[in-house]
Design goal:
It contains 4 helices and 11 strands, in the order H-H-E-E-E-E-E-H-E-E-E-E-H-E-E. By secondary structure, the protein is of the alpha+beta class.
Length: about 160
Amino acid sequence: MRQILYFAIAALLIGAFVPKLYGDRTAIAPTETALAATPAPDGGRQTVIAQSANGHFQTEASVDGRRIDFMVDTGASMIALRQRDANRLGIFPSPADYTALVATANGNVKAARVQLRRVDVGGVTVRDVAALVLPDQALGQNLLGMSFLSKLQWQQKNGKLVLEQ
């Protein structure tokens, strides 16, 4: 019995400290993913998001003046926000606002439709962007969907996502 207890304590300690020693190798800090906007060849603005180790494009955006993390998702028709992040942005849908039915990997979920005044990724800015607020348990992370991307020129090449305006 004592050996089991020692083993359990050792496993807890290893589980708590080993990740801190090696860090999260799949996460990319927002400052590493989105570069500052640069002039695009046609005179517009351009920003580049590097692909993370897990194959996704993670970035930080400014939504109505506040910073928030996103995963770029071309399969999402709209920007999708977790409720707690929407609250951080000053968006507080009432229970009656959750009228949109959304199909997610976790099944069908009700969401609230909202309008974001300004979404900026690395200096590339889109105004008046449609978004959905979903319950936290329905969405693992915020998604930067097509309601933002469709207002830009974008392409994926050499492990980078290039956004042009």
